[in-house]
Amino acid sequence: MHTPRTNSHDVLIAGAGPVGLFLACELRLAGCSVLILEQAQNPNTPLKELPFGLRGLSVPTIESLDRRDLLRPLQERAASRNTSAAAHWMQQQRRPAGHFAGIQFFHDQIDSTQWPYRLPTPISNVAADMASIEAVLAARAVKLGVKILRGYGVEDLKQSESGVTVFAAGEEFRGQWLVGCDGGRSAVRKLAGIAFTGTDPEFTGYSAQVKLADGCTLKPGRHYTATGMYNYAEPGTIGMVDFDGGAFHRRDPITREHIETVLRKISGTDVRVSALELATTWTDRAFQAKEYRKGLVLLAGDAAHVHSPLGGQGLNLGLGDAMNLGWKLAATIRGDAPANLLDSYERERHPVGAQVLDWSRAQVALMRPDRSSRALEAIIRDLIQTDDGATYFAGRVWGVEVRYDLGGVHPLVGRSAPDFELADGSRLNQHLRNGDGLFLDFDGSFRSFAACWEERIRYVASDAKNRLGLSALLIRPDGIVAWAFDGSGSDSEVVDRASTWFGNPDCL
User: Which of 339, 374, 461, 472 is most buried by a 10 A CB count?
Assistant: First the structure.
């Protein structure tokens, strides 16, 4: 029995998954008080461990983690858990770079010169299990002073002009804002009355760890069949898709007999499953919240969008939401946010979410067990084997093509800032560790501007090994370029750009 009490914080976050934890870290970095309410008593489940908990991190995610000094501890933990060994697709002669509906492309095909807005450095694959991601983020959150209450699922909420009251486990909690990071079946989204629309599932997907009976053989790799698709990695990791309209998902307990029946149906073999060690189901349901904000309630992560795990973009999409929202919500709470800053969260992130949902739907179309899909698959395979085709798919899967429409003409505006190697030996990302905006002045010719904004934007004057032809950059706290100057055009535009994202300083 919990003792009733009232707790007040700047922000309440529902959900202590990676998105909720990362958002909490961002808010605490900016000085906001944060309480996370998590429904589950125990954060640890077998599905977060290897192999099913393995997640590939996109370029924007890797850059965001590096900018907050979270990438290094994550890589160290992943190495200690031998994460690379669990990534069976990495055990190939050619270095895989990703896939589209299981059709692989490789690093030696990628022509990075097609991305002139990026530094000509190799992009590394980073993989980590969900248990490690959550552990690293939770440790940072606690270190920063975030309070996490487990066993507190949101049961009801009430909004007023002054804040939000949340009811959980017999207690009341009050915050200026509430952010739902509580998954695809988000209680926050439902209680706030935010519409969730999209396309219904076509299949039930299965991820299972099994033991096959002696003498049973399945061909390793991914295989499309007349009844679906299955992927097998020795000794007993199976993924399969049964186009049943999602009928079995969360309907009945997953038994050894059921897994065997579906596997026989999909593989067309008389394979026998002698033991079922672990299994879960998923679907290709693709839904998105109509709005990411309603009053003082915001959504991020799966609470705002759900889709199939094909391509592994769900976690990356959610962490991108958190990185985009954190500094904007903090500035709003501090009272120094320019007009409509918080509105830019939905304006920027909703289109990115919609694009990922369509990317997932396109893969489902390619996987359908019919003649038309097999014909389309053959065409995609031909295209992805070309350098231009592989580079296109890499740009989408890796996230390097993400660009917010900020109105600038330079190709860097709206994109993630390159991690410049500066003349003093530091890297750009290191200067973003404290969560402030940044003005990078390669020539040192914008000092007067920097003096005017010194309380809101960190000023760094340094040349770089490769400045990509630029003279100066204005970078938001989330690492997105707000203004880029290459010597052409008017340098007075920077004042308008800075005012848009940081408000007007006292000297203007």
Answer: 472
Other C-beta atoms within 10 Å of 386: how many?
12
Cis previous bond, 220, omega within 30: no
List Cβ neighbours of 141 (8 Å cut-off, separation of 6 or more). Answer: 21, 24, 25, 28, 36, 148
Among 226, 222, 205, 262, residue whose Cα is nearest residue 369: 226
Whether the per-residue pLDDT at 412 is higher than 90: the answer is: yes
pLDDT tens digits, one per residue of 51-61: 888 888 999 99
**What's 169's DSSP letter?**
T
Q: Of 373, 220, 221, 349, give the one whose Cα is nearest residue 291.
A: 349
From the list 201, 263, 202, 269, the residue with the least C-alpha distance to 237 is 263
Strand partners, 100: 103
Q: Between the CA of residue 412 and those of 129, 180, 481, what are the distances in Å?
A: 32, 31, 6
Long-range Cβ contact pairs of 422-431 (< 8 A, separation 24 or more): 422/460, 422/462, 422/463, 422/464, 422/465, 423/462, 423/463, 423/464, 423/465, 424/462, 426/462, 428/475, 429/63, 429/66, 429/67, 429/479, 431/458, 431/460
Q: What is the pLDDT of residues 171-183, one digit of tens each?
A: 999 999 999 999 9
Single out the residue of 462, 458, 500 nearest to residue 477, CA to CA: 458
* Pairing relationship of beta strands 54-57 and 126-129 according to DSSP bridges: antiparallel
Q: How far apart are CA 311 and CA 50, in angstroms?
A: 17
- Model confidence band, residue 492 (pLDDT cutoffs 50, 70, 90): confident
Name the least confident of 242-256, 368-382, 447-461: 447-461
Hey, what domains does the chain have and what are their CATH numbers?
A: 6-95+115-197+287-365 (3.50.50.60), 204-283 (3.30.70.2450), 428-502 (3.40.30.120)
Letter string b/e over residues 237-273, b meaning 16 or more CB atoms within 10 A of that residue's CB: bbbbbbbbebebbeeeebebebbbebbebbbeeebeb
Candidates 36, 62, 329, 55; CA nearest to 181 is: 36
* The two structure tokens encoding residue 164: 């939000």
Number of H helices and number of E strands within the chain? Answer: 13, 24
Angle at 351 between CA 350 and CA 355, to 5 degrees: 120
Instruction: Report the C-alpha gap between 164 and 174 in whole angstroms.
Output: 6
Task: Give the whole-angstrom CA distance, residue 353 versus residue 306.
Answer: 9
| Degrees, nearest 5: CA angle 272-274-275 | 130
Give the Cα separation of 55 and 50 in Å (integer): 10
**What is the Cα–Cα distance from 440 to 182, expressed in whole angstroms?**
37
pLDDT value, residue 1: 34
Distances from the Cα of 124 to the Cαs of 31, 74, 98, 180, 419, in angstroms? 33, 14, 11, 32, 14
